[in-house]
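Hi Y.,

Following your request, here is the sequence exactly as I used it, all 269 residues.
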Amino acid sequence: MVEHSPRSLIVTFYGAYGRAFEGPVPVSALVRLLGAAGMDAPSVRSSVSRLKRRGFLLPARAADGAAAYELSAEARQLLDDGDRRIYGSAADGAGGSGEWLVAVFSVPEQERQKRHLLRSRLARLGFGSVAPGVWIAPARLYGETEHTLERLHLTPYVELFRGSHLGFAPTAEAVARWWDLTALAKQHEEFLDLHEPALRALQSGPGPTPEEAYRGYLLALDSWRRLPYADPGLPRELLPADWPGDRAAAVFAELHTRLRDAGARFAQP
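Below is the corresponding structure, written out as tokens. Let me know if you'd prefer a different format.
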């Protein structure tokens, strides 16, 4: 079950609305806008401090001199990469060209902490594990993978290849070994359990207020944005016939259409 932590919601806010602000986002605005999603002011301030220590946010001043925060260059790159992943999946559905990106890595034992970091980041990018030191993903994830490995200074340990699966098991069987499809399906079903009822209510009821649209969209996006990373858009023909990812993507796409722009009116500085 998705938990909407203050830190996660702040990242989601910047991805959805924060980049549209003219200049840095005042701390007071963050407190107000995260408060509308159920987060108290001390939790917001504490989470902002943690994101500053991680280099995601940089302290700045708003036009009136008030304390504010702006995105670091690395944070903007992360969010730009996330746009392609999050909204591309919603718009296009799972699919691919049939080409794969293969990451082969070797890390010396004395640097095993980097080995753990490399594995965890490849997993977070949506790679499946073929064998020790060999990971695979749809080829369209190359650019984001390159950015991530460069940002973490891991490129000396990795070689990337692009190609087709030629054998020997059928590709659908291999994909079921490389990814835990049962766990991925469960994540899609949890998203549907949380947000499909809200979509039905929107379809049959009156339009939401700007604040209701903002809150609904922020929570839906915070739940959804993890899914295109856990499930990296595997080709549909390689997935089970009853794959719930199709419905989850359709539900998020309609919530995005109905709520994002309406919520932007509430999120204005």
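Residues 181-204 form the longest helix (24 residues).

Thanks again,
Q.
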